[in-house]
Each structure stands twice: as C-alpha cells, then as structure tokens.
Amino acid sequence: MESRIKHYNNMLKNREITCTELTEKYLSSIESDNKDLNAYVTVTADAAMEAAKKTDEKISRGEEISLLEGIPMTLKDNISTKGIETTCCSKILEGYKPIYNATVWETLKTQGAVLLGKTNMDEFAMGSSSETSYFGGAANPHNINHVAGGSSGGVASAVGGNIAVYGLGSDTGGSIRQPASFCGIVGLKPTYGAVSRFGLIAYASSFDQIGPITTTVEDSAIVFDAVSAYDKMDSTSQGRKGAPTVDTLKNDIKGMKIGIAREYLEGVRDEVRVCIEKACEVYKSLGAEIVYFDLPALKYALPVYYILACAEASSNLGRYDGIRYGYRTDAYKDVNEMICKTRSEGFGDEVKRRIMLGTYVLSAGYYDAYYKKAQNLRGSIVNAFKNAFKCCDVILAPTVPMTAFEKGNAISDPIETYLTDICTVPVNIAGLPGVSIPCGFGENGLPIGMQLIGNTFCESTILNAAWQYENAVGSEVFRPSQYGIKL
After folding, report:
1. Is residue 283 a contact partner of residue 258, using CB atoms and an 8 Å limit?
2. Does a cis peptide bond (omega within 30 degrees of 0) precede residue 220?
3. What residues contact 401, with CB distance under 8 A and at least 6 apart?
4. Which of 16, 61, 160, 436 is the most exposed place for a label (fewest CB within 10 A)?
5. Distance between CA atoms of residues 447 and 182, nearest Å
6. Helical H runs in 38-171?
7. Backbone angles phi and psi of 72, in degrees to 5
8. Burial zone of 403 (CB within 10 Å; 0-12 exposed, 13-18 middle, 19+ buried)
9. What amino acid positions are annotated as catalytic residues?
10. Chunked mean pLDDT (size 10), the chain, 487 residues
C-alpha cells in the first residue's frame, strides 16, 4: 500500500498542490465530518495555516523539505502543546494551556509538521471506547454507531476517517493498538523508553508510551523514526536502537519464526481467530515458520495491569487539587472541602473508580496482598516473554478479541470493556514493542486487527514483518471510510 505521507510529500515537492491548499482541504473536512466523528476536541486552524505558509515559502525558494514537513497531523489531547488547550478530555483540566511543548511535538514542530488540532480520548486515558471523555466519545469512521476504541479513539477516528494524515497517541494498556484495530488502521506501541514521555500527561508512568497511528506500516515507521530519539528531559528515555526502521521494511522474512501463544487465542471471537489463521497462511507463503507455544503467565496479565496501573494513577492524579490550575469548585468552606469537592466534581466516574482502586491496593494492610504481589508477577511475565523470544523472532496475536462494540456498551458494562485489553496489556507490562495492523473484517463489516509483538527495541523486526504482510494482502484488509479528503 502507498504511504500517505510520501504521497503528499511528493505532491508538495512536485508543486501539484500547495501546503496551504492541502491544509485547507483537511480543515474543511474536519468542519464537515467532525460533526459525525467527534474526533477533534480542539481545532488549531490559525496555527495550521501559519505552519503551512512557512512550508510553501520554503518550497518556493527551492529548498528541500523533509518527509513530515507540511503534512497535516494531530495529537492526542494528553500531549502537551504550549499555549494550546490540553485537557486530557477531563472537566478538571478545562481551560488548561501548558507553558511548554511535549518533546515529541517539539520535534515534529521543528520538522515543519502542521498541527490540525487535539483529538478526543478517554478521560486521562482511562477507558477502551473514548466514551469516558468529558466531550463525549469519538465515532468509528466505518460505522458511527460503533465506538472508535480507546483511549486514543480520537486519533484513530481522525486518521481512519482521513481528517488527519497521521497522529500521535499514547498506549498504557493498548490505547494505540486497540483503536487502530477497531478503525482498520496501523498503530505502533514502541518499546518503553524508545520515545520520550516528557510532556505526556501521566496515567501510569511505568506503562505509558507515545506512538504513531497511521494508515500504512511505512507511515508508522516514518513517524516513529522521527520521534524516537534520546531525550535528557525523560529519565526513562533511551531512544531508538539501530538504523531507521523505514530502511529495513523490505527485508526478506524467509526463515523468520513467528510465534503463536495458545493463550492469546482463548476467548476470542471465531471471526477474529479465522483472520489470525489466515494471516498465518500468508506468512507461510512468504517463507516464515509458524511456531506454537504456551505462555501460561498471560493469565495474570489483566489483574497485574489493573492493580499496578491504578496504583500509579492514584499517585499521578493527586496533583489535580484545584489550587494551581484547572477546574475549581465554586462553593467551599475550607481548603480540605475545596479539594474534595473539586476532585469529586472534576473527575468522571471511571477516573474516580480507578483512583479509588489504586489507593486501596496501596493502603496499609493491603499493599503486600495486592501491589507487591502484582509487582512480583510483573517480573514473571517479563521473564516469560524473554523465554518466548528464544524460540521465535516475533509473536503474532489478535489485537482485540472482537470488533468495535456499539456506542453505550462501555458505559453500561465497564467490566466487560476491561476484557478488551486482555491481548494488549501484556506488551505494556513487559515494556515490549507491538504493532496492530488490519487483517480482515467481521460479519458486521467492521475491521479486525492483529498485533505483532517483538523483543525490546526490535521495532524494525515487527514493522518489517507487518510491512511484508501488508504488501502481500494490500487492499484486501484495508477499506477507506466515506469520510475525509480524497487526493
């Protein structure tokens, strides 16, 4: 499949279209299509046009432009943007404008990226449908009666609906890969530490990772290469290891061992399992070897994730007290009542639920029974993956056990939606890279995704395997939505 980024880059360099015209087309599509998709919560039209004008001036002077220069894109609303409202789609951060840029945005801005706006998400990235957002959920561009997924649902909706060429989301337990699967596009969760988290508003600091959401594997590689540099502002940052991943996309995968953990196939819908089996046949035709193995530690992944992530969330969200910035309750008698009422009124139900759970598992008398035990089990899961990669190069698994569910399901049955994370959270627990790519469609016509999981800092391996599959099946697994511009 053709890279959308390269396509527009060639059009700009060949002067088939100006960056101003391209940006205007996207802004016009946002104005008309966002009514259905609710992908954007803030549109930065003036800043986008100003950036586009600078690119046009550069082209008119005959200067070279980089691949991402002048390409209209978006950011999830938990990535800090100086002077631009960044709310995490929460009432408690309404009106908050950061005084600095996140490193990833500073990097892209320096390269001339055109920011169209900030996109919808589950409040503080806590959810699997974007419906915990203070602004209402983002819709699936393939059927607006279904969710776009979460928590990076707005980015996936915008990219899947082509009202952004690409976007950056964050992935704490599947929040890039799950909405990418639901919307039939590509989502890359990099190795923990490969991309700087400086300026990402934290949910669970030992799990959070920024990554690209795009329409093609090559585009994900291009964006990942651009933002995966060491950053001294992030103490966990290591940057990308090795050569740019985009240079390794066409490497032969003959002889590559692709592992299937049997536990990943338990409890998934039949239509999802069939798509995974078909993908295995494609890889066999490309010369890869399919290796089945057991990974029993996976049964602990979901409880480990929710105990540890909620514990970290209860600590990270303690800073929202109504004193320094954001929402503050109107009526109160003293500071204690002001803080209590501010947090009660400012946070949504799901966020309060996770804060309370996290506070509980960290409390005296329960710390050893829950938090400490979960940390020990996390180590077991990390070691289980290390052993798995002794017998295979890449692990193939479903991204989500199902296709996108209908709107309202996540609110009426939140426990059921937690189960959609069952295939994605192990990657975050172990700090591994994972990429979701389309692999078919369900009976309802909605996309199905599969994920390729690699060893630490092996983004080039999983992206190459993903590109080979995408190149082999092409348009069979990708279906453009009715929304967005067509160029």
Report:
1. yes
2. no
3. 267, 268, 269, 272, 419, 420, 422, 423
4. 61
5. 6
6. 45-60, 103-110, 153-160
7. -70, 130
8. buried
9. 76, 151, 175
10. 96 98 98 98 98 98 97 98 98 96 98 98 97 97 97 98 98 98 98 98 98 98 98 97 94 97 95 97 98 96 97 97 92 95 97 97 95 98 98 98 91 75 97 98 97 98 98 91 90
Neighbours of 160 (CB within 10 A): 32
How many Å is the Cα radius of gyration of the chain? 21
What is the DSSP secondary-structure string of 399-456? SSSSSPPBTTHHHH-HHHHHGGGTTTHHHHHHT--EEEEEEEE-TTS-EEEEEEE-ST
Rounded CA-CA distance 455/449 in Å is 20
Residue in 158, 118, 151 with CA at minimum distance from that of residue 37:
158
Taking the CB of residue 475, how many other CB atoms lie within 10 A of it?
A: 8
Rounded Cα gap, residues 110 and 101, in angstroms = 11
How many CB atoms sit inside 10 A of residue 280's CB? 17
The answer to whether the beta carbons of residues 117 and 304 sit under 8 Å apart is no
Rounded CA gap, 339 and 221, in Å? 44
Q: What's 206's DSSP letter?
A: T
What does the pLDDT read at residue 372? 97
Q: Are 396 and 181 in contact (CB under 8 A)?
A: no
Which DSSP letter does residue 135 get? T
Alpha helices, DSSP H only, in 161-300? 177-183, 217-227, 270-285
Residues counted in the chain: 487
pLDDT for 1 equals: 87
Residue listed under structure tokens 């089996």: 277
In the chain, what are the domains?
Answer: 4-295+380-478 (3.90.1300.10)
Residue (of 378, 423, 362) closest to 396 by Cα position = 423
Residue from 155, 173, 279 nearest 220 by CA: 155
Spatial CB neighbours of 295, under 8 Å, sequence gap ≥ 6: 261, 262, 263, 264, 384, 385, 388
pLDDT of residue 410: 73
Residue 333 makes CB contacts below 8 A (sequence gap 6+) with none
Tell if the pTM clears 0.90, that is, is over it: yes
Instruction: Tell me what percent of the chain is helix, strand and coil, each rounded to the nearest 5.
Output: 45, 15, 40
Which tokens in the block code for residue 30?
Answer: 């946002």
How far is C-alpha 24 from the geometric centre of its chain's CA atoms?
26
Query: Which CA distances in Å does 417 have to 311, 338, 351?
Result: 20, 33, 15
How far apart CA 113 and CA 52 sit, in angstroms, is 8
